[in-house]
Amino acid sequence: MNDYVNEILENVKKKNAHEPEYLQAVDEVLTTIKPIIERHPEYKQLGILERMTEPERIISFRVTWVDDNGKIQVNRGYRVQYNGLIGPYKGGLRFDKSVNQSIMKFLGFEQIFKNALTGLPIGGAKGGSDFDPKGKSDMEIMRFCQSFMTELQRHIGPDIDVPAGDIGVGAREIGYLYGQYRRIRDRYDGGVLTGKGLEYGGSLVRTEATGYGLIYFMREMLKANGGLIFEGKTVTISGSGNVAIYACEKAQMLGAKVVAMSDSAGCIYDQNGIDLDTVKRIKEVERGRIKDYLKTHPDAQYIERKTEDSPIWEIKTDIALPCATQNEVTLNSAKKLVANGVIAIGEGANMPCEKEATDYFLEHNVLVAPAKAANAGGVATSAIEMSQNSMRYYLSFEQVDKMLDAIMVNIFNSLCEACANYDLGTNYVAGANIAAFTKLAKAMMAQGII
Questions:
Q1: Radius of gyration in angstroms for the set of CA atoms belonging to the chain, rounded to a whole number
Q2: Tag placement on the chain: N or C end, fewer CB within 10 Å?
Q3: Is-contact 148 193, C-beta < 8 A?
Q4: Are 88 and 112 in contact, with CB atoms under 8 Å apart?
Q5: Residue-wise pLDDT tens digits, 436-447
Q6: What is the pLDDT of residue 2?
Q7: How far apart are CA 190 and CA 386, in angstroms?
């Protein structure tokens, strides 16, 4: 059966030769699910891998808008509706200059596994544009969002495809997108987008969900391995967006000392512990750079990023939480983290570790919480938001947070079960892939050849 997996991998590489991120995601999954393929020869007979490695639909479109100087700008928009086996397509929108079809497909592929792990009835999708909101005025962002949604609205709906936010798409962008959707459709479809403002159908905890969920998952993973706890541990967190900020908040609540955070230009190191209120003000209110932290805390250090390797991974830490973007932890960074005694990695971003880096961590007995499991809290809470919209009812912060915590515990338990069934030890990377793949494959077989 290994020949079957290798054959599919080769075919995927030939068909998608210029899409490195997508190939990396497929390779990481297929190489870890070989044990389950060995046990189930019917998967080959039914072409499960062939179908699972091909998106159901890729939508690409032009987005034309006018900047504040009256100049016409053109960007490219995407929506990859990857797999709707277990529910409406669900996944974020990313506005960033790095966006291309490869990244959209990799994120969509990851999303189907992540969503399956939540245990909730949601399929997987991803979308976005190469539009960069950095440095743009509110009016420019509004005009772009309106143009983007004018096309996207043809392909989405509460029971069809439900986008949410991602890098570059926060509450402001979701608001503009939803406003345009409502104007065109002339009806209230609250469940068509998640991450909405509380004033018009959003859910409490949605902002905190991915970061909180990451820490809930890490708490369970640490506890299952020698009864380890966050209290007294040193933590470094890359990024300074929603995921990083609220992972920091929850880690501090559990007694950890977070000493470093970053953005694309560099990182701050505060040996006294990060003052999160300052980071929130800089990033959520002023939309500034992490370097501005020094204006309030001159005793902290700012380390400029000069190579592809973020300097944050050179700082000695017990727990590292990459929460910025894909492939931010290189093999070189992994070696530095291991040399400095890191005990656990929690992937808050999507595929933040290069495959070689992940392999290196596992070879050196570092616990790895894989993204498709550890950062599933965001999409899980999005699904809770969809349910509230359907019920025309709001749950309290405590209710949603309790549900999120329970979902993350269940996800970790499903990984443990997969690891036990296939003698994987603490290889939670493989455990996540096998647990999710099992659910998807069963749904695929039940629904016939489609």
A1: 21
A2: C
A3: no
A4: no
A5: 999 999 999 999
A6: 74
A7: 8
| 3 state SS of 119 | coil
The residue whose two tokens read 């059966």 is 1
Model pLDDT, residue 1: 59
Nearest-5° angle of CA 247, CA 384, CA 133?
55
CA distance 362 to 136: 42
The string of pLDDT tens digits covering residues 25-70 is: 999 999 999 999 999 999 999 999 999 999 999 999 999 999 999 9
Query: Do 77 and 62 meet the contact criterion of CB atoms below 8 Å apart?
Result: yes
Contact between residue 405 and residue 220 where contact means Cβ atoms under 8 Å apart: no
Mean pLDDT computed over every residue of the chain:
96
Q: Residue range 359-375: average pLDDT?
A: 97
Torsion angle, CA of 289/324/377/142, rounded to 10 degrees? Answer: 50
CB 118 within 8 A of CB 83: no
Task: Quote the pLDDT of residue 330.
Answer: 97
- Domains of the chain, residue spans: 56-189, 209-374
Helix (H) or strand (E) run with residue 417 in it: helix 397-421
**Do 56-189 and 209-374 come out as alike in CATH topology?**
yes
**Tokens of residue 167, six digits:** 């890098």
What's the count of helices (H) and strands (E) in the chain, helices before strands?
A: 18, 12
Query: What is the full DSSP assignment across 148-171?
Result: HHHHHTTS-BTTTEEEE-BTTB-H
Taking the C-alpha atoms of residue 350 and residue 166, their distance in angstroms, rounded to an integer, is: 10
Superfamily the domain 56-189 falls into:
Leucine Dehydrogenase, chain A, domain 1 (3.40.50.10860)
What mean pLDDT is predicted for residues 87-104? Answer: 97
Q: At what angle do helices 20-32 and 101-118 cross, to 10 degrees?
A: 30
Cα 3 from Cα 430, distance rounded (Å): 19
Cα–Cα distance measured from residue 137 to residue 228, given in angstroms and rounded to the nearest whole number: 46
**How far apart, in whole angstroms, are the C-alpha atoms of residue 13 and residue 10?**
5
Q: Which residues are catalytic?
A: 126
Q: Give how far Cα 188 sits from Cα of 155, 266, 394, 411, Å.
A: 17, 42, 16, 33
**Cα–Cα dist 154/233, whole Å:** 49
Q: What is the pLDDT of residues 277-293, one digit of tens each?
A: 999 999 989 989 999 99
For the domain spanning 209-374, the CATH number is: 3.40.50.720
